[in-house]
């Protein structure tokens, strides 16, 4: 029987996307590489635990969940989360940023200074610019200021991000236009915390990093893994947790790698294609008016 591996998620390194596996193994992903794996026959997806600790109950979780945690572990994970406002006494400096994912899709957010731009890569931000750096609560207040004064949300759904990746504006200047305007407007607002050091407008573009130049429109996305199913395709792009795989006969399909966690995965047979459930896009996305 083939050795099974458990995926620990997609990680963005300085050289590009890397799949991590329990036990420390890593699989670097490069454009054109074939990504293929199967889900163990008779397998059950189990909770990945929280804060580095295994799930005490080894609870089963839905194959469609991107969190891969049972209710109790999800609660424990959020109990120590900056995103959930449960770490107000965190002494580390934080950065506030504006991120752009496609036309009309801008968000404001914060990330620990020590993480650099990793958070932006993890979210699939096509381009971004820093707004400032300061203590956690000052960064939070700045984030709230922009949400209230400029109507900038702090979340953009992944489905919306995926839908426009193949039809983004051609130039970096066009892609950065919305955050350039919002950055300028933000600097004129009153009420910025005094402890937050403002940052100049310096856009960073990730189109080449993600491999989005000339990306074909995706026809659908994997909606969940199932025991005995397989996934296979040639990697043409990656953004955030998503892999864009070119498949035989189906076209380009998006795989959210968060769906891989919690499963026992095995090497796929040569020529394996996608046999797990797919959700087809109703219209062409972007139309607007170990194992490897």
Strand content: 25-35%
- Tell me the number of strands: 15
Instruction: Give the overall average pLDDT.
Output: 91
Shape: globular
Unreliable stretches, pLDDT < 50, 5 or more residues? 284-289
Largest sheet descriptor: 7 strands, mixed
**How many angstroms does the end-to-end distance come to?**
18 Å
Question: What count of helical segments does DSSP give?
Answer: 6
Gyration radius, in Å: 20 Å
Report helical residue fraction: 10-25%
Structural notes for this entry:
This protein is of the alpha+beta class and 292 residues long. Helices cover 19% and strands 29% of the residues. The protein has 6 helices and 15 strands. It has helices at 71-78, 118-123, 136-150, 158-164, 172-187, 207-210; strands at residues 7-13, 16-21, 26-28, 34-39, 93-102, 105-112, 127-135, 197-198, 204-205, 218-222, 230-239, 242-247, 251-256, 265-267, 278-280. The strands form 3 sheets. A 7-stranded mixed beta sheet has the order 14-4-11-12-13-10-15. Strands 5, 6, 7, 8 and 9 form a 5-stranded antiparallel beta sheet that branches. A 3-stranded antiparallel beta sheet has the order 1-2-3. A hairpin with a 2-residue loop joins strand 5 and strand 6 (105-112). The longest helix is centred in the middle third of the chain and has 16 residues, at 172-187. Mean pLDDT is 91; it is low at 284-289.
């Amino acid at each position: 029987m083939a050795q099974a591996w458990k995926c620990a998620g997609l990680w963005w390194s300085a050289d590009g996307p890397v799949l991590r596996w329990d036990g420390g193994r890593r699989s670097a992903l490069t454009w054109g590489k074939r990504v293929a794996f199967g889900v163990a026959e008779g397998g059950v997806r189990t909770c990945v635990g929280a804060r580095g600790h295994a799930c005490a109950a080894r609870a089963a979780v839905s194959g469609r969940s991107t969190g891969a945690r049972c209710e109790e572990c999800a609660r424990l994970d959020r109990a120590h989360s900056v995103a959930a406002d449960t770490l107000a006494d965190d002494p580390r400096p934080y950065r506030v940023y504006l991120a752009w994912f496609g036309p009309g899709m801008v968000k404001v957010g914060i990330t620990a200074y020590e993480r650099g731009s990793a958070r932006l890569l993890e979210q699939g931000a096509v381009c971004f610019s820093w707004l400032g750096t300061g203590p956690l609560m000052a960064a939070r207040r700045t984030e709230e200021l922009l949400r209230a004064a400029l109507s900038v949300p702090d979340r953009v759904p992944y489905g919306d991000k995926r839908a426009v990746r193949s039809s983004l504006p051609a130039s970096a200047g066009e892609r950065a236009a919305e955050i350039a305007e919002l950055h300028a407007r933000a600097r004129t607002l009153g009420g910025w915390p005094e402890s937050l050091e403002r940052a100049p407008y310096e856009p960073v573009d990730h189109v080449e990093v993600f491999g989005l130049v000339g990306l074909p429109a995706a026809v659908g996305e994997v909606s969940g893994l199932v025991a005995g199913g397989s996934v296979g395709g040639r990697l043409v792009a990656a953004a955030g947790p998503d892999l864009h795989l070119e498949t035989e006969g189906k076209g380009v399909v998006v795989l959210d790698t968060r769906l891989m966690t919690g499963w026992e995965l095995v090497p796929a047979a040569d020529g394996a294609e996608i046999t797990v459930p797919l959700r087809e896009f109703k219209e062409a996305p972007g139309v607007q008016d170990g194992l490897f």
